[in-house]
From TrEMBL:
Domain BAH: 113-236
Organism expressing this protein natively: Friedmanniomyces endolithicus
Cited InterPro entries: BAH_dom, BAH_sf, Znf_FYVE_PHD, Znf_RING/FYVE/PHD
Record-given protein name: BAH domain-containing protein
Entries under CDD domains matching the protein: BAH (cd04370), PHD_SF (cd15489)
Region (Disordered): 1-44
Gene Ontology molecular-function annotations: chromatin binding
SUPFAM superfamilies the record matches: FYVE/PHD zinc finger
Superkingdom of the source species: Eukaryota
């Protein structure tokens, strides 16, 4: 599946916790239909209400299956623009009258950025550090669903949070990438002054070998989480492979055997673990070329003349290191000249062996002496 960026709708959606701290928006763009013009007295009253609290509005999601029907249900709002249909959710805003009295906008400008409905944002949550550099990993992330304002000093955004794996049930797992996010239907209303800029987010289809891998600094998603109702991840399971039957972490390399009778994908970590186990058993084998699936880019680092290992495993008296031909590939790197495994014993003696497929035992390429 090709990469997709957050949508940029031309018109705002029709009407259907966290408390971040406060980078003021510099411009607003209106989008009809609007709330009725307020009288001077009503405007002053609404402004007073907004300034009495850092968080004047609250959002409560509603599960219609668990709620008794009443006349109040006619006031329920529905949100459907949440990545996948299963996240569509009913919700209520309190106080609804004050929220509906604010004018609606289709985008908001923060600093030099113009952020539209449907796009994703970074949300600042700590005002104690006055550092102009933005650490994207340290920011909250969300999708913009609705923008309303009384004036440029009182601008509010209804959002759906993009959670980190560690924020949800089960926590962060070995297959989760550093920049992996999980879209949810956890709704909130935040002050636009907490927005720290826009965020590019794309969907990665890990079931498709032709799907572009996430770049080293790119944020992506491949699962969703129904926070409001079922507390479950999306029904589509992550693709599992290799001998350990685990999903792929896009921060780590995997390999595919090119033997027509095999074609299986393997974790590099599993390959070096296998090598060091065989070394301890004294049964190192040789093996055929594999296709290497790498990230879209590799970080540039300062290296010693000897290329660093892509993966390493240690067991008993042996250490096994996995080197990939042409990697690392930064401008100051010394890339490996061949794909191979280097096995070191307790006395420091080294030998090389071909990388082998864990399933058919076909080799990668001839090793060179160390």
């Amino acid at each position: 599946m090709a990469r997709t960026k957050a949508a940029r709708p031309e018109q705002p959606q029709e009407e259907p916790n966290r408390t971040p701290s406060k980078v003021p928006p510099t411009a607003l763009m209106k989008s009809p239909p609007q709330a009725q013009e307020l009288s001077h007295e009503d405007r002053a009253s609404l402004k007073d209400f907004l300034e009495r609290s850092d968080k004047p509005f609250s959002v409560t999601t509603v599960n219609p299956k668990k709620r008794k029907r009443s006349a109040a249900d006619t006031a329920l709002r529905i949100e459907t623009d949440l990545f996948v249909p299963r996240l569509s959710v009913a919700y209520e805003i309190q106080p609804a009258t004050n929220w509906d009295s604010l004018k609606r906008y289709k985008r908001v400008a923060v600093g030099n950025e113009s952020i539209a409905l449907g796009e994703c944002i970074l949300v600042k949550h700590d005002m104690s550090q006055d550092d102009p550099r933005i650490d994207s990993l340290g920011q909250w992330k969300a999708k913009v669903l609705e923008v309303r304002a009384l004036d440029p000093e009182h601008v509010y955004i209804r959002v759906a949070w993009l959670n980190r794996p560690e924020d949800l049930a089960g926590g962060r797992q070995p297959h989760h990438g550093k920049n992996e996010l999980i879209p949810t239907n956890q709704l909130d209303i935040i002050d636009a002054m907490t927005v720290n800029g826009g965020l590019n987010l794309f969907e990665w289809d890990d079931s498709n070998d032709e799907s572009p891998m996430p770049g080293i600094d790119e944020y992506f998603w491949r699962q969703t989480y129904d926070y409001a109702n079922t507390k479950t991840f999306s029904a589509q399971k992550l693709r599992k492979f290799c001998r350990d039957r685990k999903p792929q972490n896009p921060d780590e390399m995997i390999l595919q055997c090119e033997s027509p009778k095999c074609r299986k994908w393997m974790h590099v970590d599993c390959i070096v673990k296998d090598a060091v186990q065989r070394a301890n058993r004294g049964t190192a084998r040789e093996g055929k070329a594999v296709k290497i699936k790498k990230r879209a880019s590799v970080a540039s680092v300062s290296l010693d003349p000897t290329p660093p290992a892509t993966a390493m495993a240690q067991e008993g008296a042996y250490t096994a290191e996995f080197l990939v031909r042409g990697s690392p590939n930064g401008p100051d790197d010394t890339p490996s000249e061949v794909t191979q495994i280097v096995v070191t014993d307790a006395e420091g003696e080294q030998r090389t062996e071909h990388v082998t497929c864990l399933f058919c035992r076909e080799p990668i390429e001839p090793a060179i002496s160390v």
